[in-house]
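User: Sequence for Gamma-glutamyltransferase below. Tokens please.
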Amino acid sequence: MEHTYDSQFYPYASKRNVVYGNRGMVATSQPLAAQAGLQILKEGGNAIDAAIATAACLTVVEPTSNGIGSDAFALVWVKGELHGLNASGQAPQELTPEAMKAAGHEKELPKFGLTPVTVPGAPGAWAELSEKFGKLPLTQVLAPAIDYAENGYPVSPTLSKYWKKGFENFQKVGEGEAFSPWFDTFAPNGQAPKAGEVWSSQGHADTLRKIAETNAEAFYKGELADQIDAFSRKHGGYIRKSDLEAYTPEWVDPISVNYRGYDVWEIPPNGQGLIALHALNIAKGYEFQAKEDVDTYHKQIEAMKLAFIDGMKYITDPKSMSVSVEDILSEQYAATRRELIGEEAITPEPGQPPKGGTVYLATADGEGNMVSFIQSNYMGFGSGMVVPGTGISLQNRGHNFSLDPNHDNYLVPGKKTYHTIIPGFLTKDGQAVGPFGVMGGFMQPQGHMQVVMSTIDFHLNPQAALDSPRWLWTEGKTVVVEPNFPDHIAQALVRKGHDIKKGVDEANFGRGQIIWRNNETGVLTGATEPRTDGEVAAW
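Assistant: Structure tokens for Gamma-glutamyltransferase:
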């Protein structure tokens, strides 16, 4: 990489410095999970093994954001080649628009309960990555996660905050017997665990052990699948064992744009990484003079708005998209969208291309392998559904399906919905620079754009790139900014017609990690940010 990063203090940066290592590195939002991944590296595993260990561990030590019933995506750099894994699940065969209408859901699927549950892909991702690229057996790789689930761990401060929010939410919306297993599992003493309090889950440990011993067969075809099926049938859900049996993670070709000499990589739809690439493609038509400049922020926001509104219209299961990725990422279409950006904020409308609650982790090893991995239940704890006695908290991704038959993301059984979670990766001249990611729902492509531009346009080291105050476009001309966002910039944006609001919850602005590799020396540079309890564990 051309840029040489040091620990220079940048405006708005935290007191954290970047972390260096050369034999291995794991960066994620929970220190215990990062250390679990590092432990696997020291036991002889590679970056892929470390990623699996960290991901499995995060289902235990950060259940507020993901679980065994999550979906997952990965970008994997091995021997000079980047591989993409889409481990999001499809809609159950019984989850039909007709069934939704009969159940009284005319406009959208509910957020919670069994209805929005689609097939979980995370256990399949772990098994698939292990089989294709791992060095160690899955039983060894999942051992740290099993240990934490069985013997417990003290809950960290940020985790306790969001655990309490999840508990309070399900107290309000979690009516009925189907929600009882959630409270039994995650609030066994009648409340969310507090910071420093030890929490454990034997059911979680037993499930992880069965997944490890069977390479996830127990989850998709065995006794765990039977338990998911029985729980769903008992409480009027739609997912069945046959849906689980039909599931296989999908290897996909990553998509990219070249941004000022660097190739920025994302997973193709049904993920929203396309939005980040589309926004960068629009933005690269400008020369930005300074980061803390109103013109820079204005053009970033306008480019993201245009990209996002296109993404919301077109992104879905690629078999159902009415336009292609190539169409959206064409230079011609980027130029067309760029022409709409003037001196004043606009309310974006979708264009017509020419036809033609999440956890993130990054790992690297001394051999040059690197992984960008993301895993999520959605909306914190997901659906609120936990299969009794198993610790399996099920995601609620089906909520993103549209019930409008004219929409690309219209609900169809067996279809994959628009997905918010996206891993990112950077290369230059065919060599890996490294993995990066910013978790947090619809913030994710916006965080990717801001981190990439901070790195490439403004030469910030990875810690400073993550620390920089962020903005979040929500709708129309409304942009929410962090409390430490520069006031003079915010006021100047208002004068350009933006509706600027100050945010108060740091979770709304994402939580990210980065690992960059110096290909001449092999030195790894890692960063995590102060919006989470994260750690960079280096060797």
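The first strand starts at residue 19 and ends at 21.
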